Amino acid sequence: MRVDELFDISGKTVLITGGRGLYGAHISEAFVEAGCRVALASRNVGALKVFAGKFSSRGFDAPLCFELDQGEPSSVERCIGEVTDALGALDILVNNAVLRPMRSFHDDIDHFDESMKVNATGFFHITRVVADAMCRRGSGSIINIASIQGVVGVDPTLYEDTGMSGSIPDYFFHKGGMLNLTRMLASFYGKYGVRVNAVSPGGLYNDQDPVFEKRYNARTFLGRMAEGDDIKGVVVFLASEASRYITGENIMVDGGYVQK
Description:
This protein is α/β, with parallel strands linked by helices. It is about 40% helix and about 15% strand. The N and C termini lie far apart (about 40 Å).
C-alpha cells in the first residue's frame, strides 16, 4: 500500500465526544478536513450545532450532532444507536469528553464522585459499547484523549502567584486511569482487530496568565505551549492504516514537557 493510502481516512465514520472544547474543536476539525463522516456528541447539542455549522462556510460537510450525557448509561446507548442509524457502523471513536466539577484540592468530595460517572464509568461504558460493535466487523480504532497530568504529578511552581491552581485531584486520577485502561482494552480487543491507543497532550495556549505561560514554556524542550494544530496529525495517524500495528500505546504531544 502506498504511504498516502496508509494515511487516507476519507469516508471513514468517526464519533468524537466532547468535540468542541479546547482540544476537541481541533480534533473535530482534523477529521472533517480528512474527509471523514463525523458525528459530534455532548450534552449541549445547541452549542455543538453552532460549532458544526462553521465547517459549511469552509466548503466541508458539517458534522452531525447528537445529545450525549456520558454519565447516564441509557443516554450512551441511545446516542450510539442514533449515530449508527445516521452514519452506519463506526470506524473510529475519539473519547474526548471530560467532566471537571472539582475546582480545588479541598473541594466538596461529592464533586469527585460526580466526575467518576462521566470520566470513569461513562468512559468505559461508551468504549465497550462501540468496541463490541467494532469486533463484529473485525476492525476499528479507538483514540482516548488523556493528558500529561495522567503521566506526571503537578508542578506547583508553575502556578505560584498566578491565581491558578493545578492541584485538581479528580483529573489526575481519571487521566492516569484512562492510560492503563487503554492498555487493558488494547489487550482485550486486539484479537478482534480493534486497536485502542491514547494521546496525552500538554497545555494548550488559551490566553493564560503571562507568568504561567513563561514558566510553562521554559519547562518544555520546544519552548512553547501547544497550538491547536499540534494534535491534528497524531489523531489522524492513529485512526489510519499508517498505525495499523500500533495498539496499547500512549503518544505524548507535549513539546517534551514530561522528559525535562
